[in-house]
Amino acid sequence: MEQAAEQRGETAEKEGAAPNATGAVDLIEALRASVDRARSLKATGEKAAKAGIRGRSHMTHDELADALAHRR
């Protein structure tokens, strides 16, 4: 008779289980996303500066992108 995986000291994993089933946050992925957002904002700010858009320091990334889009 065949023993259950747990009895043999093996762990049984369900196929297709979500990697973050516990709800834990992947900190490395969160850091990468944060760095990407910062780089994107910096690049957009630099483009806005070259375009001569005023009030950049008080604008969000979306506001800067809109100002650039309407400037052209």
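Above is the first protein from milestone M3; the second protein from the same milestone is given next.
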Amino acid sequence: MIRFLVLILMTYTGSIAANTAQEIDEIARIVKAQFVSEAVAKKVADDLVKPSFQSKMLTIDDPHEFAKQLTEALRIASGDNHIGVVYSPSDVQRYRVREQAKTSISAQSQQAINRAKEVEESALANFGIQQVRVLDGQVGYLEMSYFDGFVDESAPVFEAAMNMLAGSKAIILDLRRNGGGNSRILPLFLGYFLGPESIHFATKTERWKHTSEQLFTMADVRGHRHFDKPLFILTSGTTFSLAEHVTYHLRAFNRAVVVGERTYGGGKAFDPIIVSDDFYLRMPRVDIVNAITKTMYEEGKGITPDVETTAQAAFYKAYLLALSTLKELNNEAKEFDYEWVKRVVRAQAKTIQTQPTLSAFTGRHRFANYEFEFRQNELWMSYRELPWVKLVNLEHGYFFDDRAIQRQFSFSKTNDGWLLSVYFADRLPEVILEN
């Protein structure tokens, strides 16, 4: 049995290595033709077809490692945080059926099944609506974990959520743990906060199609609209992609105050493009620019908040700002004491516990893309030079980054230095030796 498995593995590994050069050439062709910037596309494509680069990639037998290293090379060469290669034969098949369904009747039935399954999964995730609450002081709170692309199917859920916020006088939109989503939702979602008329909020350009399209908010969205209320958006260092688009557009129209950390900085919308039976390419080929500013935030630098604070403290900071704003707007009203609520919120904010020290772990320590530092008995972390975030102590030596990409960390001391273990919910931990 063991000999049989070894033979299968040898055959499979040889297949991956044999196809590597062909797959890199195909990726170079796609990038050159479709990447959002023509100048950058040519540079990246030229780098991919260099014999020295291909020789290095030909030594990689494992498909996951091949995709990982190629993704890293593409991101360094392009400066784009969305572009990447993914090894997933099952996803490739799903995307292939989607394309075939445009012309094949037989594929359309399978695509209908696939789409129904995706809608069902999105519905189980509440189409990204994580929390809806009305806080003391008539401040609404809406947390979005991602932005779903099923506009028609999600409309009734958004209607219910927005109706729950009808009695609020200000709204906090929490995007701290939001890693993005599908841009098809923008007209519907922004329609609740921009108005009352339909507004041209952005222009979408696709170089590979030679097309340009103006994007407008939906003025006929179902449920209560909130375009006339103070809006506060919470961000973190892992607020990414479409969550950044929502933040940028609402602030550009002077509709929102952004509170929290500088966002990650992923600006270009991407599509999955099939490379082979095993790999697909996340291709940034859609450029969306704001109608007011005629630009967007810078790739890799993201959005700087109006009020900078840690992701952990952002909620209380925004809540207090909302209460102060409402007190100012309702200065003559005597029926509600906003200062009473503010005293409660300040007390709640102070209950954030400090983190105990990790024995012998002092100063700064770097492990590949991660950097850690103790500050006044609290453990802080920066990933890829992004803003520092205070980690939550889970006790027993574990620390937690509770944002879009949720990770846990532990440390161990060896003769060669410190070892970092990075834990994810859905895969084996990564172990990294200190630089």
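Note on the second protein: Residues 2 and 8 are 10 Å apart (CA to CA).
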